[in-house]
Design goal:
Helix 2 crosses helix 5 (105-126). It is globular and about 60 Å long. It contains 6 helices and 3 strands. With 155 residues, it is mainly alpha-helical.
Length: 155
């Protein structure tokens, strides 16, 4: 079991916020490692496959926009997924520069394995909470999400 920095470093918003960021980073790393070891897919690659599974074939620019990422970053991920046979890219007959990306059957299989691995990692962590604690955490996360959204609107 890994050791992490002390979670509780104080009770100011800044201290709690930094603890939250540390824990969130550690959780993301654990989920990513679990997906990599089980399915050979990083969390970033899994998110691309999830977008294609949910929305169907997309032009690379649409895919990048749906993920909130730079087109070049998504192009690199798609190229790697294509080399693995998990996605297929086809040219647009009206614009040869545009590529449509679609999920292959192998991609669907890999996605299912990665999602299962991610689910198990999250259950391991959050399953340690009592139902009341889990409900409280959920309510706090909703509150933080609203505050973050309101901050985006103001700033």
């Amino acid at each position: 079991m890994e050791q992490h920095e002390a979670v509780t470093t104080g009770s100011t918003p800044e201290q709690v916020g930094l603890s939250f960021l540390t824990l969130a980073y550690g959780l993301r790393e654990r989920v990513d490692r679990s997906m990599m070891s089980t399915a050979g897919l990083s969390l970033s690659r899994t998110k691309v496959l999830q977008a294609l599974a949910g929305r169907g074939a997309l032009h690379q620019a649409e895919l990048a926009a749906s993920l909130g990422q730079a087109p070049r970053s998504v192009t690199q991920i798609v190229e790697g997924l294509e080399r693995l046979g998990l996605v297929a890219r086809t040219g647009d007959p009206e614009d040869r520069r545009r590529k449509t990306v679609s999920l292959t059957d192998s991609g669907r299989t890999a996605l299912a394995a990665a999602e299962q691995a991610g689910t198990q990692a999250l259950r391991h962590c959050f399953g340690s909470l009592e139902p009341q604690q889990l409900g409280t955490l959920d309510a706090l996360l909703v509150h933080l999400d609203i505050a973050l959204t309101d901050g985006d609107k103001a700033g």
